[in-house]
Amino acid sequence: MKKLYSRPEKRGLFWFRHDLRLHDNPALVALSEQVDELLCVFIIDPRWFKSSHFQSAHMGDKRWAFLQQSLSNLQDNLQHQGHQLFVLEGETFAVLDALIGSYTPNIVASGMHPGVYERQQWQRLMQKQPDVHFIQENAHSLFQPDTLPFEIEFLPASFTPFRKRVEDQSVALALPAPTALPPAPDLPWLSSKNMDLTKKATGLAFTGGEDAGLAQLEYTLFTSHNIKNYKQTRNGLDGWDYSSKLSPWLANGCLSVRQVLTELTRYESEYEKNDSTYWLYFELIWREYFQWHLFKYQSKLFQFSGTQDTRPLTTFIAPRFAMWCQGQTPYPIVNACMKQLNHTGYMSNRGRQLVASCLVNELGVDWRFGAAYFEQQLIDFDVASNWGNWQYLAGVGVDPRGHRRFDLAKQTQQYDPNGEFVRQWAGDTHVNGIDQTDAADWPFE
């Protein structure tokens, strides 16, 4: 006789978002300790792939491929614990609301995230489901709101005073992955809706997923020891070993920022502590600053005038934006960087500064179109860091100097003196001059 499914008294639903991992996932641990049955879900929203009014989608092909790999690896790791991840498609709130109504969990949990939509969706869920208990834990950043040495409303207006106040603060150690999870529910009606991720995307230089992220962290620190020269090599334009390459896994939550710091501290204790090991921590603090900057300013991060309420002297000029996207500007170094981005979904930190400066200062294009294009193309897209950095370069964000303009010829000579990078990415082919008239033949001023 077929055994009847008996519903446990305490049921939990965990909503994976920007935390596609089992290690250092305090919300998952907290939920697991309070329920007898656990349903894990991730939701693919079709709106991610539709073009916005900035002419770019939230997620392009490279980002989507990396995300699929990350979800597939998470599914595998959950299956090793006899569990399952349900990857569902649909408008995020509608799917979650219907799922809660059908499954009727006692507790819903998720990781905290500073994003505008992420916070709005969470608040809306709690208002719509007053009988459900909600748990949210923060492992997206190094610090917690109550461990910062100031209230969020008094967040320093620029990075340096923030760094000086927080860099000596203690950070909680990363949590290990749970050794056991409550069993998954038997839901045939939901299994039929689960997205098939068995055909894993290929062709990326990076492999998505928690396993690959932890492996890269191990390689950067303990296998290659590249970290000991990081400050000297970090401005490279191409290759694998000039930088840590941790950003794609951090951005997708396959790797915890606290795990990176935990392992960095261990490296300094066991091997060497120098300016380069500090510099990786310095860049983690930069990431941290942008997370709390987004948490404070929310939608102002996407406004033309930025958090400084300063309107740049730029506009949207379609031909110039197109030549920038395609890597066909008058500047070979910019073209090479953009072709690298389009082909790989990745670009160096130095390259990002150069192409952003070009779009804003040389081409006179509204910075938001560049930020949106990066959002679509970059596999390491992080909403706080991406839009915060674009505001910084456009002179409407947290840069105390106000307006940064890079001398592209000088930068080329400094970072690609032999032209190897430009040749590698054919940056000197299809070079176009900047147009001199608009559609009505009026000169641009």
UniProtKB/TrEMBL annotation:
Cofactors = (6R)-5,10-methylene-5,6,7,8-tetrahydrofolate; FAD
Q: Which domain of life is it from?
A: Bacteria
Which is an annotated Pfam family here? Answer: FAD_binding_7
Gene3D superfamilies tied to this protein? 1.25.40.80, DNA Cyclobutane Dipyrimidine Photolyase, subunit A, domain 3, HUPs
Key words, A-Z: Chromophore, FAD, Flavoprotein
> Record keywords: Protein biosynthesis included?
no
Q: How is the cofactor bound?
A: Binds 1 5,10-methenyltetrahydrofolate (MTHF) per subunit. Binds 1 FAD per subunit.
Q: Which family does it belong to?
A: Belongs to the DNA photolyase class-1 family.
The record's PANTHER family line, in alphabetical order, gives: CRYPTOCHROME, CRYPTOCHROME DASH
* Annotated function: May have a photoreceptor function.
Q: Per its record, how is this protein called by name?
A: Cryptochrome DASH
* Native source organism of the sequence: Paraglaciecola mesophila
Which taxonomic lineage is given here?
Bacteria, Pseudomonadati, Pseudomonadota, Gammaproteobacteria, Alteromonadales
